[in-house]
Design goal:
Blueprint: H1 3-10, H2 14-20, E1 44-48, E2 55-59, E3 63-70, E4 72-77, E5 80-85, E6 88-92, E7 97-100, E8 108-114, H3 116-123, H4 130-140, E9 149-153, H5 158-172, H6 179-194, H7 206-209, H8 213-223, H9 229-236, H10 240-251, H11 255-273, H12 278-284, H13 290-301, H14 305-361, E10 372-376, H15 382-389, E11 393-398, H16 401-414, E12 418-422, E13 434-440, H17 449-458, E14 460-470, H18 480-495, H19 504-510, H20 523-532, E15 536-540, H21 544-547, H22 550-555, E16 562-567
Parallel strand pairs: 10-11, 10-13, 11-12, 13-14
Antiparallel strand pairs: 1-8, 2-7, 3-6, 3-8, 4-5, 4-7, 6-9, 14-16, 15-16
Helix pairs in contact: 3-4, 3-6, 5-6, 11-14, 14-16
Length: 573
Amino acid sequence: MDQFLLRRLKKKTEEECRFLNGHWPAGRESFQEEKVSVGPARPVRMQRRARFCQLPRAFREYAVLSYTCNGHIWHRIAGTDILTERGGILLIRPGEGYGIRKLREDDICVEFCIWPEFLKGILALDGVPEGTGGFFKKMLLDQSDVGPYLQFSVAGERQAENLLENLILLLIESHLTDYAMVRLSMGLLFLYFSRSPQMQFAKEEKGVRGYTMLDVIQYVEQNYKEPSLSELADRLGVASTSLSRFIRRESSRTFRELVLEKRFRAAEDLLLHSDVPGNRISLLVGYENGSHFYQKFQERYHMTPKEYRKKYRKKDEEEEREHKMHLEHKMRSYWDRRAESYSGQNLAQISARYEKWRDVAFQYLPGKKGLKALDVGTGPGFLAILLAREGYLVDAVDKSGDMLAHARENARQEGVDIQFHHTEGAFPFPEESFDVIVSRDVVWMQMEPEKELAYWYSLLKKGGTLLYFDAAWYSYLQEAGTMKEYKEFRRFVKSRGGFVYPGAYELEQMVYDCPLVYQERPKWDMEFWKRMGAGEVLCETGLNTKIYSEMEQLQYAKDPEFLICVRKEGGGG
C-alpha cells in the first residue's frame, strides 16, 4: 500500500486517544461504533475501524467491503472466525451479524459501506460478466443460501491495490466525493474479483462439497515451496483428477499456475523489502534451479529481478523521502509557532540556572577561550549564549526562522556575538571545522539519527568534543498504559502550576515517525558510538537535579535528562 496513505490512516483519532487513556462510555466495556448512514444522497461511505477497543457485533442494512490495509484482523461472521492479513478483503452481505476483535496500532481496516441500490448499478456495469454479476447479486442482495460473505486477497496485485487506494482517496473527503468515479472504480474492482482465482463460497458451501477454493488457496499459501496436488487431494478426501478439474473450473487456472503466482508474489515481497540476493530468493520461493527462476521471472515481468528491485524500491524510497520532507515541514512549522514560549522558558533558565548548566557542561568541555564551537538546533540560542559568554567563537544553526529571530534578540540582550545560520540540509561548513559541537534536546526528533550524528561528528576537528543533552522524549507513546499514566502526570503538573504547552498534542501526533521514540536511551546512544568506532565516549544520567529548578524537576520527572560526550581521536594532545 502507498506508504504516505497508510501513515495517514494510521494517525490516531481523538476517539482512539481517549480509548488509550481509558475513557470509555459510561457503563460499557466496549465501544459501540457510530452507525454509518448510507442512502441515495450518500450511497457509499468509507470508515476506518477504530483501534484499541473491542467492537461489538453489529447488524448492517448495507453491504460491506472490508479491506485489511495492514496487520492482522480477526472478523466474526455468522458464528465463524475469519482471519485476514494485509491485502485481505471480505464482502459481507446486508443484515449479517459482523464483529471485529480488538485492533492493535498496526491493524488498519477500512470498510466501504455500500447502499444496495448503488451496488445493483455497479454489478450492471459493462464489463462485469453477466454470470458473475448475477452471482454477486444473488449473494449480496437476494439473501440466498450462497453464504454470508466472500473472501479475496489482493496482496501484491497492483491493479487491485491501486483501485482500492483510489477509492479511499475519493471517499476520505466525503464532501468532495464524485460518486460517478466511485461507481466506475468499484465496477473495475468487482471485475477484478470476477477474474480472481480466490473467489469462493463461504463455509456453508462446505456442506455440499466438503471443500472450497479457500482450502486450495490456504494450502498453496502455506506450501508453495514444496506443493503437491496429491497431498492436498488426500487431505480433502478427493481424487487428484477430480480436484484438478475443480480447481480449473473454479479459478480458470491449474494448480501449478496458482503455485507459480504465489511464488512470484513472495519473490516480489523479498525483492522490495529485503536485501536478499536474487539467487537466494529463488531458493526461498521454491526454485532449486536459479536459472529457471530468472527465466520465468523475466517472462512474467519483462525485466530481471535486479531491475525489478531497482525500479520499484526506488519508487518506495522516493515516497519515503517525500513523507520525511512533509514531516520536517510540519515540525518546522510547529517550532515556529512554539518559538515565543520556548524562548521565554530558555531566558528564564539563562537567568536563574546559568551557573548550574555551565558547571555541568564544562566538566566535559575545554575551558580554553577562542575555540570554535557549533550549536546544532540552537532554538532560542541557550547553549550558544552559554558558550559565547565563556569566550568561545560560536556559530549556531537551526531550521526554524522564528526560533532564530528570538535567538538573535536573546544574544543581543546578553551582549554576545554569535553567527546564526538558517539551514536546510547540510550546514555551510567543511569537515573538521569545529573544536566543540553542542546540542540540546535535538537528537531525539531526528528522522535519521545515525546519519545526523555521523554528520555532526564529521564536522568535528581531531581531538574535538561533541556534547549533547537529550532525554527519552515521548517514549510513553510506546505503550497504552504508559501513555495513560503520562497524561495523568501531565494534568498533575498543570494543577501544581507547572508549564504544559497547549499545542503539545500536535507534536505528539508527529513524533510517531521519529525512530528514537521507540529506543531505550541513552543505551541506544552508547551502542551507536561504539559501532561508529568513535574515540572516548562518556554518558551522565540523572541531570534533572543538577540543571533544573524545583518546578522543572517536577515537570520533567518523567523525562530524565542525560548527556553524551564524544571525544574525537587525534589532534596531538
